Amino acid sequence: MQPVKRIEIFANYVELGKILESLEKAGVRGHSVIKDVAGKGTRGTITNDLAMTMLDNVYIIAFFPPEKLSLVESNVRQTLSKFGGVCFISDAIEIETTRCVG
């Protein structure tokens, strides 16, 4: 097991490319994106009943080494401050596994 940081971002689909670029520039090597996210938060209710995909929200999750925290935070903060969205960074533990060959 090794400690890692988990970053979770909720943003508009239109800004997805810019957010992923900011993560990559900070050295985050991988990510997952879930499209068509709906929910309710402090900023209101987000529904997924719009016919236009460009107005949908996305959820981005990625993991990175703790030593990259300040660079990731700086890059993501700049992007979200321009285009909107919310971000959470927390501690996580990665369980190392072996690759199975069948």
From TrEMBL:
Spell out the Pfam families in the cross-references: P-II
Query: What stretch or stretches form a coiled coil here?
Result: none
Q: Name one GO molecular function term.
A: enzyme regulator activity
User: What does the record list as GO biological process?
Assistant: regulation of nitrogen utilization
Source organism: Nostoc piscinale CENA21
Supply the name of the protein. Nitrogen regulatory protein P-II
